[in-house]
Design goal:
6-stranded mixed sheet, 4-stranded antiparallel sheet, 0% helix
Length: 113
C-alpha cells in the first residue's frame, strides 16, 4: 500500500522560509516522479512543482513560485522536499505531495503579512 506523509508546514511571516518533506512508502521510490500541489480555501488544487525520476531529474515549477521554491528528492531516504523561500501571503494553502496515483494528507502553510 502506497503511503505519502507530508510534514514541515507551519506559520511564517512574509519573506520567511519553510521546507516541506514528503516521505513515501510502499513504492519503488527512485522510479517514480513526484509533485507538490497546493489548495487555498475556496480554490482548486493546483500544481506547484514536479520532479522526475533519477534517470533525468527534471524539475518544473508554476510561474508564481519560480526562483523562490525548489523541489528535490533524496532516493536514499524515500523523501521529496519543497524548499520555500521568500514566502508571500498568497502562498498560504494546504500543500500536498503526490506520486502517480496517490495523495498525501497535506500540510498547512500559513504566511502572515
Amino acid at each position: 500500500q502506497v503511503q505519502l506523509v507530508e510534514s514541515g508546514g507551519g506559520l511564517v511571516q512574509a519573506g520567511g522560509s519553510l521546507r516541506l518533506s514528503c516521505v513515501a512508502s510502499g513504492i519503488v521510490f527512485r522510479i517514480n516522479p513526484f509533485s507538490w500541489y497546493r489548495q487555498a480555501p475556496g480554490k482548486q488544487r493546483s500544481l506547484v512543482a514536479r520532479i522526475t525520476t533519477e534517470s533525468d531529474y527534471n524539475t518544473n515549477y508554476v510561474d508564481t513560485v519560480k526562483g523562490r521554491f525548489t523541489i528535490s528528492r533524496d532516493n536514499t531516504k524515500n523523501t521529496v522536499y519543497l524548499q520555500m523561500n521568500d514566502l508571500k501571503p498568497e502562498d498560504t494553502a494546504m500543500y500536498y505531495c503526490r506520486d502517480v496515483n496517490t495523495w498525501g494528507q497535506g500540510t498547512q502553510v500559513t504566511v502572515s503579512s
